[in-house]
Amino acid sequence: MAFAGLLFPILGYFFIALWGLLGLLKVAVTILTHPFTALKKTTREIPPACLLDPALGSHEYVTANGLKFHCVCAGDTSKPLMLLLHGFPEFWFSWRHQLKAFSKDYHVVAVDMRGYGDSDKPDGVASYTLDKLGKDIADLIPALGYSACVLVGHDWGGAVAWRVADTNPELIDKLVIMNCPHLSIMGQELTNGWGQLLKSWYIFMFQVPWLPEFTIGLHDYRNFNAIFRGRKAGVKNRDQFPAEVVEAYKYSFSRPGGLTGPINYIRAIYKTRSFLFPRTRKTIDIPTLLLWVSSLSISVLVFVASSVEGPSVKTTMWRVTQRYPELVDRHIVLNCPHGRFEI
């Protein structure tokens, strides 16, 4: 706790300053070595056709927690609700395959979370605290006409799903989390040593004002090519991400404010220290499926419905299985890169 209370903030400011200087240096070198292409921007006024595909569902706007949310809905409204929460850097389109696959049995809703896509983008880092993000979803479920749902969250959407499970468990029939540790465990790992702290370098880099947005936008948002088609990102089959799909992400994030809101999620969680001292229930009594992926495999872990004490997800699934003998099933799926659950 002493590390969390004293050394972590000091190290945090050091890393923020370090990444700020390195980022400025990288930007300067990039512009000097590629003066004609580095600052190039394409005006994207018309969405790619894949975003308008009627087979994915209908586009609707729902008001919740004082904001307007863009949702893509598929399946009969008489069926149970499955609500899909995307991660970073993603938006509703990341769930395009799930919208089709699960609409036979559920009313599936993929939402652009606050700050993303066509949903409202409130100003300021304080508008993106985990409490407010959780309240969005807690209000969105009844706004969609349901008393509870199957809640599915990936990455930062997983963090929000954990928060809803903590504050409003009555709204969740089943919980599915993809690649997101429970926040209490994330806090422990960040403050217990150097390993996870160094792996979470991006948290500090994104604290620098405007620089992350500017860097990601260089070369007409070429970073999205690397994220979705790059070998270093662990992508094994580039055919899963054709040019039109990558262009859909560039379209969404190149719009005014398209990057600032999403990056403010990370800025807010650092500024509020909510990952260090999260307010969480001792147990999660919701049937929970946890999917964890490495560059080589996905571990699928099904928790029993009763008394799962703060699901402990550290850096490898092996350590989780050691800590929780309650796991009732596990499968390994090979060759899935981190974060690419849309495959």
From TrEMBL:
<feature type="domain" description="AB hydrolase-1">
    <location>
        <begin position="80"/>
        <end position="201"/>
    </location>
</feature>
<dbReference type="InterPro" id="IPR000639">
    <property type="entry name" value="Epox_hydrolase-like"/>
</dbReference>
<protein>
    <submittedName>
        <fullName>Epoxide hydrolase 4</fullName>
    </submittedName>
</protein>
<dbReference type="GO" id="GO:0004301">
    <property type="term" value="F:epoxide hydrolase activity"/>
</dbReference>
<keyword id="KW-0378">Hydrolase</keyword>
<dbReference type="InterPro" id="IPR000073">
    <property type="entry name" value="AB_hydrolase_1"/>
</dbReference>
<comment type="similarity">
    <text>Belongs to the AB hydrolase superfamily. Epoxide hydrolase family.</text>
</comment>
<keyword id="KW-0472">Membrane</keyword>
<keyword id="KW-0812">Transmembrane</keyword>
<dbReference type="InterPro" id="IPR029058">
    <property type="entry name" value="AB_hydrolase_fold"/>
</dbReference>
<feature type="transmembrane region" description="Helical">
    <location>
        <begin position="6"/>
        <end position="32"/>
    </location>
</feature>
<dbReference type="Pfam" id="PF00561">
    <property type="entry name" value="Abhydrolase_1"/>
</dbReference>
<keyword id="KW-1133">Transmembrane helix</keyword>
<feature type="transmembrane region" description="Helical">
    <location>
        <begin position="289"/>
        <end position="308"/>
    </location>
</feature>
